[in-house]
Structure formats: C-alpha cells, structure tokens
Amino acid sequence: MSRRAVVVGAGLAGMLAAAVLADAGVAEVVVLDRDELPDGPRQRRGLPQGRHAHLLMPGGLAAMEEIVPGASLGKRLLAAGAHEVSLSSGTLARSPEGWLRRWRRAGPVMLTCTRALVDWTVRAAVLEQTAVEVRRTAVVGLTGSAGRVRGVRVSGPGGEEDLDADLVVDASGRGTRIIPWLDGLGLSGVRTRTVDSGLVNASRLYRVPAGAERFPLTVVHADPYVSRPGRSAMVMPVEGDRWLVSCGGTRGGEPPADPEGFLRYTLGLPDPIVGRLISGAEPLTDVHLSRSTSNVRHYLDKVPDWPEGLVVLGDALGTFNPAYGQGMSVAAFGARVLGRELDRADGLDAPGLARRVLRGAARPVDAAWA
C-alpha cells in the first residue's frame, strides 16, 4: 500500500487513525490540526472537554494497545501517574438508591488521569514508532466530487491551497465541519440527531491532602427520579498527586464557576462527601466551566451514495455527553475498524473501502448511543 493519507485532527481519534494507516504501509500519513500541539500533557484549545473528568475503560485501552503495539500505552500512562481503578471495588459511589456495594474482587480496571495526559502519551507513542507527520494548519473544506474525495483545502498565511490525498480521515472531533464540507461537494440531506440535556460541567484541580492518597474515586450521582434538575459531582485521582473534581448539573441545577459557589454546590448534594473531601484541600486551578455537552449523532453511514476516499471517525461521527465516559473508547474502536479494513483492502483506492469503514465505525457509536 502506498501514496498519501490525510487525517484531520491530532486528537486521540486522529492519532490512532494515523497509526493504523502507517502500519498498513501508507507511504505518507499527514495529520493536520489548527492547534499548536503542546510538547507535554497540557490542555489545548482543540480539546473543549479536556479539563473535565475522563475515564479510560479497559476495552478502550485494549484497542489502543492493539493499534500501537509495542508502545505499552497502559504502562506509560501508569508511569506518568495515572491510576488504576477497579470497576467493582475501587469506587465509592452514591446512587439515588444509596451507596453502591463495593465487591471484594478487583475485576476489570479503568485508568484515571487527565485527558491531556492520554492525548500526549498516545501522540508521543505514535510519532516515536511511525513516520507520521503532523502539520499545523486549518482545514476549510474537501476537494473532489460527490463520488470521490481527492483531498482537503487548507488555509495558511499565503491563502488557501489544496492538499491531495488518496484517503481523507475526518477525526476533527466535536467541532467537525463535515456537514457543510459535504454540502460543498453536492452531498446534502445528512440526518443528524441531537440530544441535549442542558448539562453544564465545572471542574477544578486540587492537591490531594496528606493521608488521603489512597482514598477511592468518589462520585455522587444525579437522581433521575425526582422532578428537579440533575446535580452530581466526582472526585477522581489523576497524575501529580492531584484530584480532578468535576461537577455536573442540568438546566436549573448548573454548577457555578466561582470557587465559593463551587464548594457550596458540592456540599449541597444529596450527600456532602465531595464537598467535605475538598473543603480542606489546596485548589490548584480556577474553576473551568463547559456548556458544550450535547450528544450529536451524524448518520453519515446511512448516506446512500457515500464518496470514495473519505472516512469519518471519533466525535466527528458521534459525540457523547462526557458524563458517560465512552468517547475515548469509541474513538479507539473506530480506528481499529479502519485498521482491519485496510488489512483486507488492496489499497487506499479499493472500491467501497470508505463505506465499509464508516459502517463498521458506526457500530460502537450506536452501542454507546443506545
């Protein structure tokens, strides 16, 4: 397999897609992102939910390690300070029915750390092990026709120019422009479904108090059975001896952005445990608020005549409310589908390749959506 593939977006979905393209023998894999990517685990503009709690589930990590074999991503994350949390015994969770039982057996484990650490670790591993090239530029459209995408149009200091590609992967995330890009090729009528609970997230980092280093991940769930706005909070251990504290509230129960109001919000939940944990902890950041939490499903896999040469993965295909903890895993599953279809294909221009990838990537999206 040879020639050029272009990936739009250098986030998790984009870098995993780039890894499978390089592994499939594509001669030139170019990742395009409008952000200046940090050289460490730091927040960037292109990760709008990056400051809030993320959970890397065991299935998602397994898919990532299959995509980037030999990188030992799990070990890298743990060495950088991520935490292993047992799904059956490692959490202290209060539901509307009371405190959930913690089982003696550890069972499957998830990893908890900042989203910035996950993205940086994956990006560094892919760049170490492949010849993938990352360029800073803004993609403003697709080139080609309704039958075949031939590349992307980028905007730079000298104006707009075209970058040809045999395969384009849109992994640009929640802010994807795929619908207007398709309109520009003459493809319209894509069905999109949005489910917006009005959730607002507010998060803040704290130093873990002395003696609380082994305190489990703690969450107070919202109560869906009462006719009041949902309100919840989580204390999640992350790298650097820190707690990432994330609050979430639906319309009428939104968490505030001021520090005093943030603390009052946690103390006013059905159980005040989160507020009590952080009341004596040292805050390390301001409170960061996000209102971009809607679930959005673009039914691109249902388009009757999908163009050759174009694949859409990750949040660009289906975006989830961050409260569900599914986004990173679904992105990894989609990239794995791309890799498996490339193994079966004769080349990037194999007839039907893009449609098969899109339909395969839609399956884990639909499973999480349901």
Q: Using the coordinates shown, work out and report the CATH topology of the largest domain.
A: FAD/NAD(P)-binding domain
CATH superfamily of the largest domain: FAD/NAD(P)-binding domain
- What is the helix fraction of residues, given as a range? 25-40%
Determine the mean pLDDT: 94
Radius of gyration: 21 Å
Characterize the largest beta sheet: strand count, sense, and whether it forms a barrel.
8 strands, mixed
Number of domains: 2
Protein name: NAD(P)-binding protein
Signal peptide: 1-22
Keywords: Signal
Domain FAD-binding: 5-342
Structural description of this entry:
- With 370 residues, this protein is α+β, with helices and mostly antiparallel strands.
- It folds into 2 domains: 4-50 and 116-194 and 295-369, FAD/NAD(P)-binding domain (3-Layer(bba) Sandwich), CATH 3.50.50.60; 197-290, D-Amino Acid Oxidase, Chain A, domain 2 (2-Layer Sandwich), CATH 3.30.9.
- The protein is built from 9 helices and 22 strands.
- Helix 2 (58-67) packs parallel to helix 8 and helix 8 (327-344) runs antiparallel to helix 9.
- This is NAD(P)-binding protein.
Quick structural overview:
Helix content is 28%, strand content 28%.
Give the helix/strand layout.
Layout: E1 4-8, H1 12-23, E2 28-33, E3 55-56, H2 58-67, H3 73-79, E4 83-86, E5 91-95, E6 98-99, E7 109-112, H4 115-129, E8 133-136, E9 138-144, E10 149-156, E11 159-164, E12 167-170, H5 178-184, E13 192-195, E14 200-207, E15 217-220, E16 231-238, E17 242-249, H6 259-267, H7 273-279, E18 282-283, E19 288-290, E20 295-298, E21 310-312, E22 318-319, H8 327-344, H9 353-369
Parallel strand pairs: 1-2, 1-12, 2-8, 5-15, 12-21
Antiparallel strand pairs: 3-7, 4-7, 5-6, 9-10, 10-11, 13-20, 14-17, 14-18, 14-19, 15-16, 16-17, 20-22
Helix pairs in contact: 1-4, 1-8, 2-8, 6-7, 8-9
Keywords: Signal
Organism: Streptomyces rubrogriseus
Pfam family, one: FAD_binding_3
